[in-house]
Design goal:
With 431 residues, the protein is α/β, with parallel strands linked by helices. It has helices at 2-18, 63-76, 98-107, 121-132, 147-150, 152-155, 203-207, 211-221, 231-243, 270-273, 284-293, 308-323, 337-359, 379-386; strands at 31-35, 46-53, 84-91, 114-116, 138-140, 159-161, 224-227, 252-257, 297-302, 366-367, 371-375, 390-392, 397-399, 411-416, 423-429. Helices cover 35% and strands 17% of the residues. The N and C termini lie far apart (69 Å).
Length: 431
């Protein structure tokens, strides 16, 4: 009896794993089927998009906020008028195991034409390796490690990156993702002596004004820390550092300014020139403490998103979220650099897709009594459309290099002048 149950169990596992995949053979990859509607043949192509980003509270970027940006794009460019989209949304959780599991689980029922995401290096790597063999584009504003550049042809050939990268900063060690709140920076010490420790922000950290981060984590793990939070949160945290005695010359804080507001995208605003100062602060001593604490901070800012054109875009997305009652899903009720890079990435893909379909001749479209099959936009074809090209973006033209990495972002590193209290440019990093 036991033996019979074991055999039955094995048969059920076989059926569960393999039978769904029989509906989509390897030869079907690269083609999409369009079903008849109301007795007439649909003229719009069908695609499947797998969107896979972390759905984690306080994470920058967050799946919910990126979904708002995606839907804004579909609405603004009226994508549904010429394209039928099957959107699959998954939580990657920045996980090296869950992200590829979600990809495989999706592919058992439908083969995606493109994957938007993941973001974190550990999640991108296994997903990109799998898609490398299927010639399916993976489009992300993450994957910041230099490893994705060095191993592009051998393991990550279908990867398209639209965000910042460590090789832009001449940094031999990966930053991984902005899920990570704190870590030492490789250039600060000899590379063989570096240990990178990760720490996510939690609701408990916010409630106790970040004291546990400094007392339990930084004091034991990091003399240099990288912060990826909104400006107000960072100011609160650095004031706590001052209160606890961490502004003593032994600790350095690096702030990656990725959260964009109406104030900090205006280079002439007080929020950009003196980020430590709060005009609404009634106790002037707190501003003086913030001034002292910010003397230990280096600011790293993308140089891309400034000016009226960007501010109009950010305002339009926030208005769209408000109209659909989802402003709570914009983590800081505004748009950050990651959401903006995501916008540029998705718009670029849709424009390339339209170019691809326009170039298809009738002989390449297969018709029968029930379906119409279009050739898909695979990674190789996508490369011919956007690599070594300049493409219109949110704030300026997007420039893609020969391996389809965006190279027009660039950074400026600021340090505060203790006498004037204003940030001064120390290094400009260009491509």
């Amino acid at each position: 009896m036991t033996k019979s149950l074991i055999i039955l169990f094995i048969i059920l596992i076989f059926l569960f794993i393999f039978v769904p995949s029989l509906n989509c053979s390897i030869s079907d990859i690269g083609q999409q089927t369009i079903q008849k509607s109301s007795g007439t043949l649909s003229r719009n192509p069908n695609i499947t998009i797998l969107m896979m980003f972390p759905d984690i509270d306080y994470f920058i970027p967050n799946l919910k906020s990126l979904l708002i940006v995606y839907e804004y794009i579909v609405h603004r460019y009226q994508i549904s008028k010429w394209l039928n989209i099957n959107l699959q949304v998954k939580d990657s959780s920045c996980s090296i195991s869950l992200a590829p599991h979600m990809l495989v689980k999706t592919m058992l029922s439908t083969i995606p034409d493109v994957v938007f995401g993941p973001f974190c290096d550990l999640a991108v790597a296994p997903v990109a390796r799998l898609l490398h063999f299927q010639n399916i584009p993976i489009v992300t504003m993450g994957a910041v490690s230099n490893e994705f550049t060095l191993q592009r042809q051998t393991m990550y050939s279908t990867l398209f990156r639209f965000g910042y990268r460590t090789d832009e900063l001449d940094n031999p060690k990966p930053w991984h993702e902005c899920q990570v709140l704190l870590r030492p920076i490789a250039l600060t010490f000899a590379s063989n002596q570096i240990r990178s420790d990760n720490r996510k922000i939690t609701s408990h950290d916010i409630n106790d004004n970040f004291k546990s981060i400094f007392i339990d984590f930084i004091s034991n793990n990091a003399s240099v820390s990288l912060w990826c939070v909104n400006p107000q949160t960072f100011r609160s945290a650095i004031l706590t550092a001052h209160q606890l005695g961490f502004i003593n010359g032994e600790y350095v804080f690096i702030y990656l300014d990725t959260v964009l507001t109406q104030e900090n995208t205006d280079e002439k605003s007080l929020a950009v020139r003196q980020p430590w100062y709060n005009s609404k602060e009634e106790n002037n001593q707190i501003n003086e403490n913030a001034h002292r604490a910010f003397e230990t901070v280096l600011f790293v800012r993308q140089r891309l998103y400034t000016g009226e054109r960007f501010r109009r875009f950010a305002s339009n997305v926030v208005d769209f979220a408000r109209e659909t009652n989802r402003t709570k899903y914009l983590i800081h009720e505004t748009i950050g650099t990651d959401e903006t890079n995501f916008y540029d990435a998705v718009v670029t893909y849709f424009k390339a897709l339209k170019t691809h379909y326009t170039s298809i001749n009738s002989q390449e479209i297969t018709n029968n009594s029930e379906t119409q099959i279009y050739p898909t936009l695979d990674a190789n074809r996508f490369k011919t459309i956007i690599c070594n090209r300049s493409i219109e973006g949110v704030n300026k033209n997007i420039t893609m290099n020969q391996i389809c990495d965006r190279i027009d972002i660039g950074y400026t590193i600021f340090d505060m002048n203790p006498d004037t209290g204003e940030l001064e440019v120390k290094i400009i990093l260009k491509q």
